Amino acid sequence: VDSDGFAHITYTDRRGGSDNRYDDIMYANNLAGDFTKTLIKQGSYGSTGFSWIGNYYEKGSHIAVDSSENYYVLVHYRYFMRFSDGDRTTTYRALVYSSATGQDTQLSSGSSDVMDVLGLVYNEGKLYALHRDSHIKVTELIMSDGSITGTEDVLVTDITSAYSHDVNGNHVVIGSKDGDNLRAHYNDIPQTFTKIDVKGEAVSVVHLGGTFYAAYTDNEDGIIKVLAIQQP
Q1: Dihedral of CA 105/62/37/14: which sign?
Q2: Which of 18, 122, 138, 156 is deepest in the core (most CB within 10 A)?
């Protein structure tokens, strides 16, 4: 939701583009009252005459909106090419799309699918992506008038799964699980709450009123609860 109360969303739709066999990444807003949608990334597979090329967006998307109503979309991208002689290559990438420029910024790339895209947050003029590149990390995207001019990893962990993050100033909190227990990284210090068992695969972190909070479903009674996460 932007500063004027309008909604900006991203979602996956197999009917967003001309080929309904593959997932497309969409953007929509209700600035005009009803929601209007825009195709951001189109999934496809087809022949160029000398090779077969696939563009796949299979792990969803995450969105953030800046103070000028520019939006940014974090996606996982799989590029596949099969040559006429049978050789093939696959590349996996984590990308952030900027509506201001129509360009992508690459966060990571590799030949094995160790990547996940997990969240995107805009805070005080800065953009932060939560993603996995063999390990969970938070990357700041350096911005200028809607353009992304560079990237810098601000928090690299030794864990391999997480669910959400939020940022306030120079502080970053990541929500995850350690086994079944609630875990939060406050900057580079992990905290495991051994008396809290989390049900399901969701820990939602948010910063409100000067405090970070983690929302989760308690495995003992099935109730959604909120815990304040303090700096160690």
Answers
A1: positive
A2: 138
Which letter, b or e, does each residue of 131-151 get, where b requires 16 or more Cβ atoms within 10 Å of its Cβ?
bbbeebbbbbbebeeeebeeb
What digits encode the pLDDT tens for the residues 93-110? Answer: 999 999 999 999 999 999
Report the alpha-carbon distance of residue 75 to residue 81 in Å, rounded. Answer: 20
Determine contact, residues 163/182, Cβ cutoff 8 Å. Answer: no
Distance CA 116, CA 14 (A): 20
Contacts of 166 (CB under 8 A, 6+ apart): 121, 123, 172, 173, 205, 206, 207, 212
Tokens in use for 175?
Answer: 């929500």
Please indicate whether residue 87 or residue 223 has the higher confidence score (pLDDT).
Answer: 223
The C-alpha atoms of residue 166 and residue 192 are separated, in whole angstroms, by: 18
Among the ranges given (19-23, 63-67, 170-174), the one the predictor scored with the smallest mean pLDDT: 19-23
Closest CA to 48 of 82, 79, 91: 82
pLDDT at 99: 96
With a CB cutoff of 8 Å and minimum separation 6, the contacts of 108 are: 93, 94, 115, 131, 133
Residues in contact with 218: Cβ distance below 8 Å, sequence separation at least 6, in sequence order: 196, 197, 198, 199, 224, 225
Cα–Cα–Cα angle for 3, 67, 116, rounded to 5 degrees:
100
Residue with tokens 């210090």: 189
